[in-house]
Design a protein that fits this description.
Layout lengths: L1 H20 L6 H12 L3 H6 L4 H21 L3 H5 L4 H24 L5 H10 L9 H5 L5 H34 L3 H37 L7 H19 L3 H15 L3 H30 L6 H11 L1 H10 L7 H9 L5 H12 L7 H35 L18
Helix pairs in contact: 1-2, 2-13, 4-9, 4-11, 4-12, 4-13, 4-17, 6-7, 6-9, 6-14, 6-15, 7-9, 7-18, 9-10, 9-17, 10-11, 10-12, 11-12, 11-13, 14-15, 14-18, 15-16, 16-18, 17-18
Length: about 425
């Protein structure tokens, strides 16, 4: 009970000073991770840490499932089809190059990793986390176009990273088991991606149609609409577990499909995510801090170097290449490149990989490197958010009003 008591007390006191903390560099992920680390210093906490990997996985998975569903439910498909701007560049060229460069960096720094193990690590650490950069996407001092690009990228790249991770895992399983790569890849991806997509479509279309019908007929009490919306991704989880499909693909597709019958789904899913869904994310970071503390002695200098490279060169170079030709200033490109934090998605995808029990020789290296990268990201991106906004705001203040990053910016926008 020690761990739960510490977490509940922390949530209570965080809620009391949350508005004050918004104006400081102490973000919620930093606070909950730090307290998780410090909790391991309490002797009774060690015996209380009965949460094994499977329990942690369930909690973290639910957090990511809700995030994926919410992000997908907010996507305007019409505007997405017509988009040729920053969002598509970051999600296509930027993400693919990030996975590739992340894998190359892993093979250089960890000489014992195979290309499949390096690919797994690159795919897990490719998605960014808008939650860690919440100060950025909410700040009125950052131009709307830049905020939208970062928020949109973080909302979609976790779901888009899942197929790459599953592909690398399937190939690694085939190699480890000595079976035909083509057959196991087809079966594994068919179950994970194919069934996941079908479940997401079925649950999303049916759920959206019923929610829309209940809304039109006024059968549904407005305060309970949020519960009906939240039930859709949870149904995706249960259906996916039954047929060994990817609950993440299912939740993401369901978020898109539900809009067809119930166009208000995005607003209600956001309401849940900002309230109860956030509690799940806080608990994940608290448990993450506990696990980091328990594994502290196992970290190596190479892991720190990779984490540093992942947050700088591996992220910033692909962003710079993806944004070539957009006309953005160097300050804007650097700002977008730097604020690509790793958080909840990388934690969960790392646990998903471990749960498949592929038992690759480099599994321990992959696990610890993910932890080191997320930990470093929580610290450096949290601490640099407010100073980074102020510096960037001063730089773009000197730009011409017709500069690409200032399109749609109203005069006199302030924090």
């Amino acid at each position: 009970m020690v761990l739960i008591t510490v977490f509940v007390v922390l949530v209570f006191f965080y809620s009391l000073i949350s508005k004050r903390l918004e104006r400081s560099v102490l973000t919620a992920p930093i606070l909950f991770t730090a307290v998780g680390v410090l909790t391991m210093l309490v002797p009774s906490a060690l015996s209380d840490l009965a949460l094994d990997r499977s329990a942690f996985l369930v909690i973290a998975e639910l957090g990511l499932v809700m995030t994926l569903f919410t992000d997908a439910s907010r996507i305007d498909m019409i505007s997405l089809r017509g988009s040729r701007g920053l969002r598509i560049r970051l999600l296509s060229t930027g993400m693919l190059l990030t996975i590739l460069l992340g894998a190359l960096a892993a093979m250089v720094l960890f000489g014992g990793l195979s290309w499949l193990e390096a690919g797994i690590l690159g795919a897990i650490l490719a998605p960014t986390d808008a939650g860690l950069g919440q100060v950025i996407v909410n700040s009125q001092r950052v131009p709307p176009r830049i905020r939208e690009a970062l928020n949109f990228e973080a909302g979609l790249n976790d779901g888009l990273s899942v197929p790459f991770l599953l592909c690398f895992i399937a190939l690694a399983m085939a190699e480890h088991q000595g079976t035909g790569a083509a057959s196991i890849l087809a079966r594994f991806l068919g179950e994970q991606l194919g069934y996941g997509t079908l479940i997401g479509l079925g649950v999303g279309l049916a759920g959206g149609a019923l929610l829309g019908l209940a809304r039109r007929r006024e059968w549904m009490a407005p305060p309970l609409t949020q519960l009906g919306v939240v039930a859709i991704p949870l149904l995706c989880v249960m259906a996916s577990e039954a047929v060994h499909a990817s609950m993440f693909i299912a939740a993401f597709v369901a978020g898109l499909a539900t809009q067809i019958g119930f166009r208000h789904v995005g607003r209600h899913s956001v309401e849940f995510t900002e309230d109860w869904g956030q509690l799940l994310n806080f608990f994940v970071f608290f448990l993450f801090g506990l696990i980091v503390a328990r594994n502290w002695d196992a970290f190596t200098p190479q892991m720190f170097l990779y984490a540093l490279a992942s947050l700088t060169v591996v992220r910033m170079l692909p962003v710079a290449l993806a944004l070539r030709g957009t006309g953005l200033s160097r300050s804007s490109v650097l700002f977008i490149g730097w604020f690509g934090p790793r958080g909840l998605a990388s934690i969960v995808l790392g646990l998903v990989y471990l749960e498949h029990q592929v038992s690759l020789p480099g599994e321990e290296t992959i696990r610890l490197t993910i932890m080191m990268t997320v930990l470093l990201s929580i610290l450096v991106h949290g601490l640099s958010a407010l100073p980074g906004i102020k510096l960037y705001a001063r730089r773009i203040a000197a730009l011409d009003a017709r500069a690409p990053e200032l399109r749609g910016v109203s005069a006199g926008a302030s924090e």
